[in-house]
Design goal:
By secondary structure, the chain is of the alpha/beta class. It folds into two domains: 181 residues, 3-Layer(aba) Sandwich (Rossmann fold); 59 residues, N-terminal domain of TfIIb (Single Sheet), CATH 2.20.25. 28% of the residues lie in helices and 34% in strands. It has eight helices and eleven strands. The protein has a seven-stranded mixed beta sheet, sandwiched between helices. Strands 6-7-8-9 form a four-stranded antiparallel beta sheet.
């Protein structure tokens, strides 16, 4: 998924640390919100187009949904397949880009945890049209992204990360700070990783990437242009969306017939 925004380091060079950076104490609670929305719309089949190492796929499959996972990162998919093997789950993971992959016809498609922010605006609209092509008539698309209208200086400051984790025999120290370009809707993050395996010399890696963020109204307009009707917008925890205060926008849109 090549674009001018860049990608987090775990996607490009350090897939083995993806889960340590992206899966936390609140992951299951966020996944449960998605599951409640799917249940509300009587969904049975789900296509996760940005599955990474499979967080949503495993969560939903264990709750009775028929789920297929797809991602543009072969390394992350290999980790997902190894997890499925260990848990003795028969799950399908497909290598593909959400902008053009053709998988089938599903009740719902999901792209969670700001995944669409890694696309340019034109790339996201292309993805919307392709996602529409992978949905049954009346199928729904569920996704989240940061809310541009709530990107105050305090919110940006709160995004900062200062973490230390053990992954296998490696200590990982990560510091991340972000800036916001409100005019163009770019949230840019600056990462500094220090990785030390056992008593080896530490390795230091720096990385920069941006997320495209949106106002809720802009998302509704984009969806309408690309064959969707916005059904609801929520905060990421499923609570009421507040235009100027909710840091994230969780959107549920329905495929419209043309």
């Amino acid at each position: 998924m090549t674009n001018k925004l860049g990608l987090p380091l775990e996607y490009k060079k350090l897939p083995e640390y993806f889960d340590a950076h992206n899966i936390g104490d609140n992951t299951d609670s966020k996944n449960s919100v998605v599951e409640k929305l799917l249940k509300k719309h009587q969904i049975k089949t789900v296509l996760d187009l940005t599955c990474g190492t499979g967080s949503q796929v495993f969560f939903l499959a264990k709750r009775g949904y028929k789920v297929v996972g797809a991602d543009f990162s072969p390394a992350l998919l290999e980790i997902a397949r190894e997890k499925a093997k260990k848990e003795k789950l028969r799950l399908q993971f497909i290598d593909g880009d959400m902008r053009n992959i053709k998988v089938g016809s599903f009740d719902a498609a999901i792209t969670m945890f700001n995944a669409v922010g890694h696309l340019t605006k034109s790339g996201f609209e292309k993805a919307m049209r392709n996602i529409r092509g992978n949905l049954k008539d009346g199928g729904i698309y569920v996704f989240d992204i940061f809310n541009l209208e709530a990107m105050t200086d305090k919110a940006i400051s709160d995004f900062s990360i200062h973490s230390h984790r053990m992954v296998g025999d490696a200590q990982i120290h990560n510091v991340q700070c972000s800036t916001i370009d409100r005019k163009n809707g770019f949230l840019t993050s600056y990462d500094n990783y220090t990785i030390q395996k056992n008593a080896d010399k530490p390795i230091m890696i720096n990385n920069k990437f941006s997320l495209q963020v949106y106002a809720a109204k802009e998302l509704r307009e984009m969806l309408a242009r690309n064959g969707f009707k916005t059904l609801d917008q929520y905060e990421i925890d499923g609570s009421k969306f507040l235009e100027k205060k909710s840091v994230s926008i969780l959107t549920v849109a329905q495929k419209m017939s043309r």
